[in-house]
Amino acid sequence: MMQIQSPHRLACLAVATLALLAVQAQAQVAKPYFEFKKPKMIAIDGDLSLDTNGISAPVSNASGAYVFGFEGVSQYDGASFARNFIPPDTIGAVGATQYMETTNGAYAIYNKSTGARTALISDTAFWAAAGQTGANGDSRVMYNASANRWVAISFGANAKDLQIAVSDTSDAMGGWKSTKFEGYAGLGFGATADYPTLALDRNALYIGTNNFAPASAGGSNSFRGTTLNVIPINSVFGATGPTTENMTRFFTPYVNGASDNVDRGFAIQGVNSTQAGSTGKAIASSLFNYDTVSFKVNGLLPSSATAASLSGTVYIGDKPFESPSPAHQPSVAIAGNRAIIDSGDERTSSSIYEANGRIYMVKTVDPIANGSADNSRIRYTVLDATTNAILDQGDIGQDGYDYYQGSIAVNEQGKVVIGYNRSGLDVTTGKISFMGQSFSTDASGHLVAQSGELLLKESLVDDYHNGSTFGNVAAGRQRWGDYSSVSVDPTDTSKFYLIGEFAREYNNEAGGHPGGTGGSRWGTWIAVIDANVVAVPEPSTWLLMVCGMSAVGFLSNRRRRADSQQLNA
Q1: Alpha carbon of 466 to those of 19, 47, 168, 217: distances in Å?
Q2: Which of 217, 409, 473, 567 could connect to 213 by a Cys-Cys bridge, CB 3.0–4.6 Å?
Q3: pTM of the prediction?
Q4: What gap in Å lies between CA 500 and CA 133, rounded to an integer?
Q5: Which of 220, 326, 324 is nearest to 568 (CA)?
Q6: What is the spatial distance between Cα 434 and Cα 458, in angstroms, rounded to a whole number?
Q7: Element of type H or E holding 560
Q8: Alpha carbon distances (Å) from 354 to 51, 215, 361, 404
Q9: What CA–CA distances, in Å, run from 91 to 73, 161, 523, 565?
Q10: 3-state SS, residue 47
Q11: What residue ranges of the chain have pLDDT lower than 70?
Q12: How far is Cα 485 from Cα 453, in angstroms, rounded to an integer?
């Protein structure tokens, strides 16, 4: 039974209980923005980046909190393989000697100490080498320090299938073995096990999916529920390669308007943990309410998940929020493009970690207290891993700027690093930027800021938009993300590796591409933060600390959402 920690916690639990009773008594309908979000592929032949070999020069400052940074995969890299997707679904992980990145279309491996790229390969070629017959995006990758092996997942050639690859050794450039299974079974071609997540603990590997049915099964890409796939850890790291032997899949159906829908949330994330006694935890954003749900997989063994069962759902009692609206950028050339960046929704898109009996996570929200400013924020939450009580919850952001696509990691000392994107209307500081901050965890579980806000990489343009060309108003959904990641260096746990997205030069003459299509292009950036540095660095040629930012261009919720609807109509 959950232990009530305070009168505030009791009030939160009462509100959550009333909300649960209310939705059980009436028809339950998923939040309106929850929709099919498969990447859109665009074809651009012969694109090359303005930079030599497509890579921006690394930056370094060994004495500061931001110690090192280098460019990762760009949209130009994917185009070189005719695998040109938007958005990139940016993610990566640091290993013993390397950093590995996966995006929609292209994977890459880097020397983690120098940033030198040692391998670039299309996603389909990677999976073919691992034994599969294609890939269709939504990749994720992690490094398991206990096994000294890499783990990657992706859609199969058919998006209803999920495939898992595990490296033979700690060298990501060595051999890989793989397996494949139906993530959303029984509905044939056109079904999608969408938005697969990835987590590892001492007992199992966890993949959560949002399931969509094909038109032949009653509607074009209609949401049908979620699945949590649980594969025992011994099956993942077996001597002959990964298998799905002794796995269990928990499918939670969704029926539009039904009163008996179970709220397991959407975008289910397993909780990453290295502690033997703390396994089987899962977190998700509520499918129906503005809250976060938690539940547990009981009965797991490293050798088998067949006897596993799910606990009941617990609502943690989030501070009030609403779904974030599109993010601002300066867009000097076109005023109509100023609030178009799709900042996602409040799903927990990045990995969740447990350390020292606490669970750490982030998501993007629009705090209700933010009022007419209607700016998105990165909300961090620290939970008691046993009781699900909120130990700390706060929002990163300041007036005049939107914060989105956050990710988090924590080391065994309770040091935390959070990465995110920030943008705003200010013509000097409002370009979409990749940012980061470090924190320590105090005895009560509160995060204490250490580094201040660090600018890791600023976009090269102030008017990112996809699906239309430079000088024209953005057309269609302006997707950004869909996620980012932070990982702890297994050989030096004070070092955190962050990866996020930024906007590259336009594919036109002004951007160095005579005869180009004129479209926007994304890039990714990998940065290293030393969580032991407890100081705000001085500004330099490679790092600009934003000071004295003014609040500009506030729009009301109604006005801003109306403008967004007109732009995307």
Answers
A1: 39, 15, 38, 32
A2: 217
A3: 0.88
A4: 29
A5: 326
A6: 6
A7: helix 557-567
A8: 40, 40, 9, 22
A9: 10, 20, 12, 30
A10: coil
A11: 1-26, 32-57, 186-189, 215-221, 370-373, 535-569
A12: 17
